[in-house]
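Memo to structure team: turn this sequence into structure tokens by end of day. - J.P.
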Amino acid sequence: MATVRPPRVELVQLSGETLRALADGDLAAAEAGAPVPLSDYLAGPECRSVWEIRAVQVVVDPPSAGWITRVVWDPDRQLAVGRAGFHGPPDERGMVEVGYGIDPAHRRRGYAGAALGAMLQRVAAEPDVTVVRAAVSPENTASLRVVRRHGFVPVGEQIDEVDGLAIVHELRVRNRGHDGGPRG
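Reply from structure team:
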């Protein structure tokens, strides 16, 4: 049986102006400033609240721009398939939280796992990161499979004002700078 390879993805950073246009649902303005073509999904209602948070975040905390939500880009198909990134830079304990959403038209093709893998590659190069967190709704079985497949383990629950109950998963990473040893 042939092994199915996950799709290749790149996480494309957006400017503050593009984040604001997406938060406003203005796809034309967002595309005018974006480095790749965007999609209706990215400017649609499912994504707008995320872009709103990130558009404000980069104004209040400009260095966070290098960490936050990006476009999940399939370079082989030349297609924006979703969004993924961190909620911000590492906190004082070295924790970053991931978030992602894939366009329903492109789900169940490995994009969420590929995007999470790209974020974990980024973390491996960051000596200040010791823990990666993912909060997933207990009803989101696809996302639960994705995080658990990448080695995340459940560590508790939390209630989000917008999303409701989430199972908190964490993945410990061993980077230089915290344990003095090699990254693992």
